[in-house]
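Example record used in the benchmark description.
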Amino acid sequence: MQELRANTAVDVLIGPFVDDADGDTPLTGLTLVVELSKNGQGLAAKNDATAPVHDAGGTVDGYYNCELDDTDTNTEGALTLAVHHADALPVRHEFMVLAEAAWDSKYVAKDDGFMDVNIKTIGRADTTETQADNLETACGNYSATRGLAGTALPEAAADAAGGLPISDLGGLDLDVYLKSGVTLIGTANAGDTVIKITLTGGVATANYYNGQLVIITGGTGAGQSRTILKYLADGSATPTRDFSVAPDGTSTFVVIGADVAGLLEAGEATDGGNATITLDAEASAENNSYKSNYIVVTGGTGAGQTRLITAYNGTSKKANVVPNWITNPAAGSIYMIIPSGYVNVGEWLGEEVSLSTNNKPDVNIDEWHDVLLATTNPLDTAFTTQMADSVPADGTIATREQALYMILQFLTEKSISGVTMTVKKVDGSTALMTFTLDDAADPTSITRAT
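Model output (structure tokens):
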């Protein structure tokens, strides 16, 4: 997965775009409309107005240069780019948008080969020194006589000496502060549960921490880590799976930038049935936006089950799944929706693909065209309609139907007189075609005459 810098314009290479008829021929002159989904939200046209341009610089065709502007990359987390042109197979790319500092730390070249460290806070809250001076002074005063062997240094003495306090009173935790990728540090709430933790002090924007990792560093439940599936503006976060021990008001945590690759949606169900699950209020309002992707129940009633979504109603938020649930999910069940890698043959053909009679998705050529959903099945027609009682003229290539008829009559209805062989129609008397033998007694070759 390519990583992009947040709030930064970038060119990305997209493709390949190949002909939907043969799935192989590269297409080079397409006018493409690019849509983006940020952190699993609804697809929308990219903000940058520049249309993708075919990359003609190499020997491999079918790829296009696509420009994204700083608005297109203004949301940290998963970014999905999707393109569907009527003449080409669908194309989809997954990116991860990193915070500017995180991206710079990883990718901006350094002469000495080291990554940047951005020191946010070093020392005590009432310190008046600059961050850099704090670190330099503290480390310079950290000696073998002041705690390198693990001896606690009293808070006042540490401050006076300019050193790093290592006692509980000193209040500094290097594991917390000297860490790249930390996006939030705080304390949970007393009312938290095994399926929800409150990220106190978090940004009041829904889905802001989706896909990131929360680690309980102290207090009740310390040592547990979970990926955040759904974050709400009120600060509550749902993990991918239940905590073994519920956090509470004593639980300290850190949130680290991470991701659940390809996560489309996650949340807390409001209802469930034998073959349905109702998603939360923030799920997509677009019908069938999650169709043909997998939904995984990760917590609450029905946890541990994975099903394929066959339909989705954006108004009711209800998703239909196959096969039926063993244990129906219910209000409070935690779910995540992930891409299935599904290839929509019906979309290529511009037709609807149905389910088989056992209510499971089927790789079945009978269902690749909606003509088959009508009363006349073209495969049935091909094998039940009588063939025409005629063949092509000598020297003309036969259709498959004509060739089959010629072979059938050659094997079942023919007569030989001298060097002439006459193949007859199904009535047994009318000539269908004639052949000339090279010898009447012992022929070694045959040539069609009429």
